[in-house]
């Protein structure tokens, strides 16, 4: 799904950061819900053709999300997100790591700190995600793993979900 919605993917190698700015055709509360509720995350948080499954989630300060991105052959790629500094519908911070199905962290893969901020943009919303890595090597590793392409494909799935949710709301 191609659109004219804002998408910026900015790499800052001096600060080991990625800044992803994405506009959505939906109100901020709905976008926030899609980022913070398991029933929505499971519908969009993986690039096509992957799906997402949650093992456990507690969206609260010091809570977590333990999930897998599942490829069409059934191979699971596990992640663990630790939430903190939550300010509802404005922002939250996380620490994000790769792990296994039991939650054991894979120390060989990069870990990151995320700041996810939600803003109004007229009738739309923007989400700005600043991802900070411990080193330039970690930043370059995730870029080489296809982070930009993965984010584009994943956020297009969120566009589709938001369209569906907006249509449901209009008919209720």
Automatic annotation (TrEMBL):
<protein>
    <submittedName>
        <fullName>SRPBCC domain-containing protein</fullName>
    </submittedName>
</protein>
<dbReference type="InterPro" id="IPR013538">
    <property type="entry name" value="ASHA1/2-like_C"/>
</dbReference>
<feature type="domain" description="Activator of Hsp90 ATPase homologue 1/2-like C-terminal">
    <location>
        <begin position="26"/>
        <end position="162"/>
    </location>
</feature>
<dbReference type="InterPro" id="IPR023393">
    <property type="entry name" value="START-like_dom_sf"/>
</dbReference>
<comment type="similarity">
    <text>Belongs to the AHA1 family.</text>
</comment>
<dbReference type="Pfam" id="PF08327">
    <property type="entry name" value="AHSA1"/>
</dbReference>
